[in-house]
Design brief:
Length: 195
Amino acid sequence: MSEITTETIKELRDLTGVSIMQCKKALEEAGGDMEKAKIILRKQSAAAASKKADRTLGAGTVAAYTHAGGQVVGVVVLASETDFVSKNEQFAKLAYDIAMHVAAMDPIWVSRKEVTDADTAAARSVFEKEVEKVAEANRQKALEGKLDSFIKERVLLDQPFVKDPSRTIQGMLDEATQKFGEKVEVVKMARLSVK
């Protein structure tokens, strides 16, 4: 067990933005291991986000990121429950980072809820041809795997963050919910390009 010092707690707080008490508890649970403490905090942030999922969003901010000499723009509307949070500098930075991610990764849908049956059927028809050579016993599993992978690559919330692939966009929103103490959600996004 590593010694848990004030400096260690401060370092974890600086990395995560989570309260000092939560950082201390996570470090204690992790036996002083910084990486394990980060994982514990991520798990807690997902739980905190699910508890706040039914709250009403009443404020937010719009962020835009322009890339490639003005050739590509990513735009995001990031919502929160109150103006207090939406006017926070860290909230604005999160919106900007997600807009940059949208410009770079070109997601089609914000969440899986937006994927229609027609979208799924079109992708399924393409992948059915691809898995024809797979053994009959494994064909359905291969088809479902390809379909899930295809959708995951195009859903913003499922994508690994372009600047830190160890985190998904949904994970970042969960962390923000824990940090700010209220629901945080991407409600709209767009990517515009010259080509």
